């Protein structure tokens, strides 16, 4: 599969129907975002059945309808907690995703979390044999769980292709647990989500301009914004070396760690920002400066859905 660059556009906030992100954008709004992405050669989109209870997939499916499928990479997920009561829930959920996305195959299909590694990895096997999935990955799995998934897949002649976990300057648990190094050593791609901490590392939100009241983001991040000030300032400072904003520097940090950063986009400007950083990398000393400041402020942004990566 030809991947033009390592920037992945995330659609978690597309079809936001539970006020998690605090937006109410419709499909026409996202059409502009999608068209901007395609014009910038950003053709890798990450979604999930769980995002907006299928609405994100539906919006993306409508938008990609007029783009040659071979030019796109689509990533979506099986979420165990949403498993339907059918003979093969993985098959059912995949078929429903294919229908909403208006496609006959998925580039990357993920087991969304580690609810039951043995059950869901085994249940994925018959689906893989159909050939509708080009690459299989796991999200929110620990290192020991990743290795177990590899063993189960290998028994039937399949290979794990990728891992998708939270990774940002504020949450490096996948790195400290050895997952990042393991992926590099075993030819697994690492996809980093929440690189911008849902906007907290962009400089857009601060004590004078907090997250939208009533949103889950506001509940989780607003009380942390004062502590993040020094890190945002350092991101801006290092970004000036490359004519980048704080947000772009945070993206570049993730690229410089050898990952595929997933950048959540709801407007055109973040798409243009992502395109600008695609070929940029930070120096080792710049990476260290950022990580030193992040460690000093010691803000915990691990989500309630994430496993303990050290187990």
Q: What is the terminal-to-terminal distance?
A: 33 Å
Query: What is the top-level CATH class?
Result: Alpha Beta
Strand content: 5-15%
The CATH topology comes to TIM Barrel
Could you say which overall geometry the principal axes of the C-alpha atoms support? globular
| pLDDT < 50 stretches | none
Number of helices: 12
Percent range of helical residues:
40-55%
- CATH architecture type: Alpha-Beta Barrel
Major beta sheet summary: 8 strands, parallel, barrel
Class by alpha and beta content:
alpha/beta
- Domain module count: 1
Number of E-state strands: 8
Average of pLDDT: 95
* Rg result: 19 Å
Task: Report on the architecture of this protein.
By secondary structure, this protein is of the alpha/beta class. It has one domain (8-297): NADP-dependent oxidoreductase domain (TIM Barrel), CATH 3.20.20.100. The chain has 12 helices and 8 strands. Strands 1-2-3-4-5-6-7-8 form an 8-stranded parallel β-barrel, surrounded by 6 helices. The relative contact order is 0.14.
């Amino acid at each position: 599969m030809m991947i033009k660059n390592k920037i992945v556009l995330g659609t978690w906030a597309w079809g936001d129907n539970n006020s998690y992100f605090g937006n109410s954008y419709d499909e026409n709004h996202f059409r502009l975002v999608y068209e901007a992405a395609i014009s910038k050669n950003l053709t890798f989109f990450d979604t999930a059945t769980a995002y907006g209870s299928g609405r994100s997939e539906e919006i993306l499916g409508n938008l990609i309808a007029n783009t040659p499928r071979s030019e796109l990479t689509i990533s979506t997920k099986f979420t165990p907690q949403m498993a339907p009561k059918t003979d093969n829930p993985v098959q059912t959920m995949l078929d429903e995703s294919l229908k909403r996305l208006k496609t006959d195959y998925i580039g990357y299909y993920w087991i969304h979390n580690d609810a039951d590694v043995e059950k869901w990895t085994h249940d994925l096997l018959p689906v893989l044999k159909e050939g509708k999935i080009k690459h299989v990955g796991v999200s929110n799995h620990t290192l020991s769980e990743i290795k177990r998934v590899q063993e189960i897949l290998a028994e039937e002649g399949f290979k794990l292709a990728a891992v998708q976990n939270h990774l940002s300057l504020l949450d490096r648990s996948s790195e400290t647990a050895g997952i990042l190094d393991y992926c590099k050593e075993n030819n697994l791609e690492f996809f980093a989500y929440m690189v911008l901490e849902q906007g907290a590392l962009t400089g857009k939100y601060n004590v004078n301009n907090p997250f939208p009241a009533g949103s889950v983001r506001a509940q989780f991040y607003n009380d942390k914004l004062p502590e993040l000030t020094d890190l945002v300032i350092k991101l801006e400072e290092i970004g000036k070396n490359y004519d980048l904003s704080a947000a772009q520097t945070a993206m570049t940090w993730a690229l410089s760690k050898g990952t595929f950063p997933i950048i959540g986009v709801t407007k055109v400007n973040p798409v243009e920002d992502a395109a600008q950083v695609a070929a940029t990398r930070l120096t080792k000393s710049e990476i260290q400066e950022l990580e030193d400041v992040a460690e000093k402020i010691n803000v915990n942004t691990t989500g309630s859905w994430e496993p303990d990566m050290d187990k």
